[in-house]
Automatic annotation (TrEMBL):
Name of protein: ABC-type nitrate/sulfonate/bicarbonate transport system, periplasmic component
Domain of life assignment: Bacteria
The species this protein was found in: Desulfomonile tiedjei (strain ATCC 49306 / DSM 6799 / DCB-1)
InterPro entries to which the protein is assigned, alphabetical: NrtA/CpmA_ABC-bd_dom
Compartment annotation: Endomembrane system
GO cellular component, one term: endomembrane system
Keywords: Cell inner membrane, Cell membrane, Membrane, Transport
PANTHER family: ALIPHATIC SULFONATES-BINDING PROTEIN-RELATED
Length: 325
């Protein structure tokens, strides 16, 4: 009799458990997200650094798997394979990935400008870079694209040598490259160590250019805009904290990078953090056109530039978050 009763109850329990699984996280239950960011990129994306270090996303009810990458191209590889939900990286690898048909969407800006070219003492002007080797973070990075811009402007050829940004100052000091381009604070650190001098900043190459951005998947934006809005709201709070706690932020950057505070403060002079964090649309267009010219985006993949930019940069949720502040 007991066995018969158990047999009759068992299917009901199974169905109930299945229904629970299909319903997803219950109200108040922790939501899991995977967030990618670049190594030593605290000066370009202080909002992301602050969110991570102060566990602001966790306080908002998320369980976050933070993942660090050497360059934006590597982050986009994991994004494309479905291993990243949100990320902070340069706009250039994002647009290259979008040009390949991946549904990646820019939500907000992290910074504009912020990179520099540092060279050995014998190089005095940009034209001296002709046939010289310049270290870059790799194909698909905005820094690599800016080296191409310098080469086109000066009508010269520059040899690209791809490497880790943290290795660049040492490679320059050893003479393995003639110069390098990297995001702050690495150029300032190299100059501080006496390894070379700064010849161009990204402001000289492309004034007010869009650099790092915050991205997500188009599918998440469509299916779960509430989560996207919640993440973006926390990001805005972190950006505000950076603006109102500047000295504490600098100390945090120094601690995370292992560099002196004076180096960090000098490096920050080359970086802009516009707020509200809207992207520079004209800069995105210009960069996309340069990527087509250099062959990093196939011309046939962009039928209309305005439509391409509208697809890759969708600030509607940022508008909403700022309106509700």
């Amino acid at each position: 009799m007991k066995r018969a009763a158990m047999r009759s109850v068992f299917p009901v329990v199974v169905v109930f458990l299945l229904l629970l699984g299909l319903q997803g996280p219950a109200s108040g239950q922790t939501k899991e997200i995977r967030f990618g960011y670049l190594v030593a990129d605290q000066l370009h994306s202080p909002g992301v650094m602050i969110m991570k270090e102060k566990q602001m996303l966790e306080a908002a009810g998320f369980k976050v798997a933070w993942q660090e990458f050497l360059a934006g191209a590597y982050l986009m590889q994991d994004f494309t394979s479905g291993q990243i939900d949100f990320g902070s990286l340069g706009a250039v690898p994002v647009m290259i990935t979008r040009g390949q048909g991946v549904d990646v969407v820019i939500l907000a800006s992290a910074n504009s400008e912020g990179s520099s070219i540092v060279v050995k003492d014998s190089i005095k002007v940009p034209k001296d870079l002709a046939d010289k080797s310049v270290g870059t973070p790799g194909i698909g990075s905005i820094q690599d694209a800016m080296v191409d811009m310098v080469a086109r402007k000066e009508n010269i050829k520059i040899r690209h040598k791809h490497m880790k940004v943290s290795d660049m100052p040492l490679f320059l000091q050893k003479g393995e490259v003639d110069g390098f381009i990297a995001w702050a604070p690495h150029p300032t650190r190299a100059v501080d160590l006496g390894y070379g001098h700064q010849i161009l900043t990204s402001k000289d190459i492309l004034p007010d250019h869009q650099c790092c951005v915050i991205v997500t998947k188009g599918s998440i934006l469509k299916k779960d805009p509430e989560t996207v809005a919640k993440v973006l709201k926390v990001y805005l709070e972190a950006c505000e904290w950076f603006r109102t706690h500047y000295d504490e932020s600098v100390a945090m950057m120094a601690q995370k990078t292992g560099m002196k505070e004076e180096v960090i403060r000098t490096a920050l002079q080359t970086v802009k953090h516009p707020f509200p964090p809207y992207c520079n649309v004209e800069s995105l267009k210009l960069q996309a056109e340069g990527l087509i010219t250099s062959g990093k985006i196939q011309k046939d993949s962009i039928k209309n530039m305005d439509d391409f930019i509208k697809a890759v940069y969708q600030p509607a949720i940022l508008d909403e978050c700022l309106t509700k502040k």
